[in-house]
């Protein structure tokens, strides 16, 4: 039985960060089926997270730095991880959220393109 997955899946052009589509997936509890929007070259997707942690307002700065807002439970530490292929993840930085959010900045110009995710630190 396939159940609708209520969170939005947002699709972006990786080079510009411009949102190009939103789709809704379905899950049987083990597999998530997700329709892809029409695209011509590269496509990056993001699940709108619900719950403990959220990466918000991603932006590419004029100096090629990358900044986003990490939001979660106040006074908790989160591990921000990066991956070049969405399969292998390495912890990049630990961030404490005294007020429930913090700005996080990376200077990815000196390394290959990569993805970010965050989890509650153990």
What percent of residues adopt helix (DSSP H or I)? Answer: under 10%
Strand tally: 12
Q: Helical stretch count?
A: 0
Radius of gyration (CA) equals 15 Å
Distance between the termini: 35 Å
Strand content: over 45%
What would you call the shape? Answer: globular
Task: Output the helix-strand order.
Answer: EEEEEEEEEEEE
**Mean pLDDT over all positions:** 79
Give the structural class. mainly beta
Q: State the strand order across the main sheet.
A: 1-4-5
Poorly predicted runs of 5 or more residues:
1-6
Main sheet summary: 3 strands, antiparallel
Notes on the structure:
The protein is 0% helix and 49% strand. It is globular and about 40 Å long. The chain is built from no helices and 12 strands. The model is unreliable at 1-6 (pLDDT under 50). Strands 1-4-5 form a 3-stranded antiparallel sheet, with no helix packed on it. Strands 3-2-6 form a 3-stranded antiparallel sheet, with no helix packed on it. Strands 7-8-11 form a 3-stranded antiparallel sheet, with no helix packed on it. It is an all-beta fold.
């Amino acid at each position: 039985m396939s159940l609708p997955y209520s969170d939005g899946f947002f699709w972006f052009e990786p080079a510009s960060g411009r949102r190009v589509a939103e789709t809704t997936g379905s899950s049987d509890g083990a597999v998530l089926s997700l329709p892809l929007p029409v695209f011509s070259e590269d496509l990056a997707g993001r699940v709108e997270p619900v719950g403990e942690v959220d990466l918000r307002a991603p932006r590419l700065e004029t100096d090629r730095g990358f900044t986003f807002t990490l939001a979660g439970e106040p006074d908790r530490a989160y591990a921000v991880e990066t991956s070049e292929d969405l399969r292998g993840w390495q912890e990049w930085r630990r961030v404490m959220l005294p007020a429930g959010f913090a700005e996080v900045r990376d200077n990815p110009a000196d390394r290959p393109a990569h993805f970010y995710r965050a989890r509650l630190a153990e």
